[in-house]
Amino acid sequence: MHPVRKIVVATSIALWLVATETLFADEKVIVATPTFSQSGGDCGSPVLVVITDVTPKASIYYTINGETPTTSSAKYTAPIAISKTGTIKAIAGVEGSGTSAVASATIFHDREWVLHKLDEAAKNFHSTSTDFEFDSVTTDPIPDKDVQTGTVYYDRTGKNVRMAAHITKDNNNQIDKVYTFSGGVFKLFEGGNMNQVTTFAKASKYESYLMLGFGASGKDLEEKWGIKYLGCEALDGVKTEKLDLVAKDPDVRKNIAKVTVWMDVERGISLKQIFDEGSGQYRVSVYFNRKVNQSLPADAFTFNTNAKTQQVNR
Q: Are both 149 and 90 inside the same structural domain?
């Protein structure tokens, strides 16, 4: 072949290759990062994880052991059942276009799922009002039971918490007793012939215990309690998650061996609590007519005193 013709042919081939590479480069797509959705994870059921990607013809690869996935990892073909808390990671790939960024998510299961749900509910919690029955039970040495009923109120603004329990009946006898907690100060008002307010100025350390089951996040519970998940149970037609709590503070454990709570984790409130005080004594609190994030009465956190009310500080 004539030298000039060789040069022309070589140049034509080079131009064709450049044009082809440019065309292919134009056809390459940016592969979107996969996304996760999940359901289940409580009552001992596995979490079902669905992975999706909006990029056409993308294949998805994943790991559930925390390692970074590659195209040699397990290929996603159907929802993944996961039976323990851990991290799932995924990438998407399209032939000729490379792979996406790595997507990562923590999958919460059982105990961790409950605490995660309480974290989410706490973000939206502002107030609660609920009627209650509070039973103090003694089984040894002489069986006895004292029943108190009334209404309890909680509200929270930022980190500021208020609580008030208005007790109206004790064993069906009408009484006027109010417990309040505000600004780190705990007060007990006893009306009638008693007509006394007792102020406990050093009660701020018990704030998180007073909020137990009403607006407390999963992180709040973990900070103060050892937590064991006992499964789910329906109360009053509401699905609840049952937890055993043992206080980390030894001073609290002297009075309360453990607390069992039935939590409505969607709203972040308790439906029932049992306080095991040991030595044949326990207290049961049951809550009904529950209202969340509704306006509270103007006098919810107050009580009526007069000139003869005795003030006691402890």
A: no
pLDDT of residue 96: 87
Contacts of 212 (CB under 8 A, 6+ apart): 221, 245, 259, 261, 270, 273
Same domain, 54 and 145: no
As given in the structure block, the two tokens for residue 205 are 């350390």
Domain that holds residue 92: 35-108
Measure CA of the first residue to CA of the last residue in the chain; give whole Å: 111
- Same domain for 95 and 153? no
Name the pTM for this structure. 0.79
Give the span between the Cα atoms of 185 and 27, in whole angstroms. 69
- What is residue 85's three-state secondary structure? coil
Contacts of 112 (CB under 8 A, 6+ apart): 85
3-state helix, strand, coil in the chain (%, to 5): 20, 50, 35
Residues 63 and 203 in one domain: no
Task: Give the count of domains, the chain.
Answer: 2
Give the strand pairing for 196-200 and 310-313: parallel
Mean pLDDT of 157-169: 90
